[in-house]
Each structure stands twice: as C-alpha cells, then as structure tokens.
Amino acid sequence: MSELRILLVDDEEEFVTTLAERLEIRGFAPQTATDGEQALEMIKNNDYDVIVLDLMMPGLNGLDVLQRIKRRTPDLPVILLTGHGSTREGMEGMRHGAFDYLMKPLDIDELITKLHEAVKEKKE
Amino acid sequence: MKSQNDRKIAFFGRMTANLTHEMKNILAIIQESAGLMEDITAISPLSETRFQDKFNNALQSIKGQLQRGMELTTRFNRFAHTPDHSRADLDLADAVAQLRALAERFARLKYITLDIAGAGAAPVRVETNPVGVYMAIFFGVESCISILPAQSRVVLTPARRNGNPAVGVHCTGEGVTETPTEFSEKIVQASAWSELTLSMDQLGAVDPDGETPGFWLVFG
C-alpha cells in the first residue's frame, strides 16, 4: 500500500469514485471530495501529500479552491484536471501555484507519475 | 456593438460549448469505468477464462470509440467558441484542421476523402471573422463534394498566396478529368457555390487556380 495521502476533488461523483477505485487497485488509498467547500474542510482537518483538483466545479470553482489552498498551505502540491481541449485553464492554474495539470480523460499511469513527481518536489 | 444576428450566433455557440463540456464529462466517466473493468479483470479469475479475449476486445472497442468521441467533442467545443469574437487572430492551419474533423463525414458519405496538405507547417495567421472563415472553407469543400465522383480527394492547403493568407481547395483523383479551366466553369454551378461567394464577400476573394482543378480562398 502506498503511503501517499491523496485527496481527489471533482463534482462528478461517479468520476471521482471510479478514479479512486482505480488508484486503490494500484495500492493507493485516496480520499474524495465532490465540491470545493468539502475539499477545503478536509484539507483543514487532514494532512495530505497531494491534491488532485478539477477546475470546472459549481460553487467554488477549482481556481478559487486552488487559491485558498495556496494561501493556507503554499507547499501542498495541487494537480489540476481540466476537461477542456485548450490548455489555457491549466496554464492559468499553474500561474496560481498549481504543480501541473492533466486533461480529462486521464491516463491513470500519467496521473500516478505526476503524483509521485509532485510529492518528490514537495520533499525537496 | 454586436448585431442581433451575431448575438444569436454567439448564444448558440455558448449553449453548444456548454453541452460539449457536459459530453466530455460523460465520456470521462465512461473511460474511467472501462479502465476500472480492465483493472478488475486483470486481477480476477476472469483473466483465466476463455472469455478473456472477448471481454478485452469489447473493452478495447469501448476505449477506441471513447477516444474518437473525445476528439470530436474537443473539436466541437473549440468550434462552438468560434462566435465568441466577431474578429480575432486566427491560424488558418488550425482552422483547416478543425474544419476537416467536423466536415469529414460529409465527404465520407459520398466516398470522398478530405485531406490536408502541408500539415505541421508554419501557422498562417489572419485577423478576421472566424465564423465567416469556417463557413467559407466548409462551403468550398461542399461545392467540391457536390460535383466530384466517388473515390475523389479534396485537399485543403493553408498557405500564403501572393503574400496573402489563404486556403487552397483542390480536387484530385481518377474521376477528376477536367482541365483547371473546365473545373472552374463546372464548380460555379454547385449549389453551395453561391453560399461560398456570399461568405467570402466580407472576407476576401475566391481565386481560381490556373494550374490544378481547384481554387484559393484568399483572406484579407
């Protein structure tokens, strides 16, 4: 079992739970949140190594959540998910401190590589 | 200030872009579910049964179609954002690639291939009305499709013509027997040609190609 403490945040519940199950099969034990407020509460009460955050969410959108995370815990790496074909939103997120971004649909191996890279950079 | 017509097109584009985003979310969920099924079968007793190949083939088919759906939806999403600005800096190479993906089916239904020449070449930039450009290229392609026999090829070429940004629309294939002049006389009879000339009125000019059956849409 991987010791990485991961939080997956996406308003599409089926997406985020299925992604969590795929990570569990690969030895991770991620937690999930389905909106920004819930994610911020979980981050306040838990110690995570990395956050995977969807940009397009109702209510607090991903960029708002990212900015709040960075204000509270600037060293916590955030990997953004974007459903758009353009890279504009992802680049915008990186300007606000995101570690990197990935396009949906995800390549699970690419996500895992990014998770490890993000945590490695945090430790360094 | 936008005209009423521009506002309607922009509204239609906004609604379409919103729906394509929802479609991408749906496809992403299907993809993750298919991935999970693949993960589970790899570690379950099913991996040792005689049905494993059939199951894997079905999963690969789902993943292939998802890829196709995602690519089309991405293209359509970008296309739906086209009316966001009545004037914008546009790369004709990018516009041609977009248009090809969206219009390929029209060609395929008549057993005609739609190709791009010079793919990967330098961008051909023009400040113009993006919707107008898409319409002009589409009606150019449609004009060709309507007069060509099956097994022909329509080739789109983003390039500069006499220094101006342009898109070449050329027709090739065994069934294309006309000289360039004969072809030019024939294509103006196509029903989409009047739509093409109307679209180009505000954008530039249609320039017949004297050397190959086809024409150039010259912008600016």
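qc> The radius of gyration of chain A is 13 Å.
qc> done
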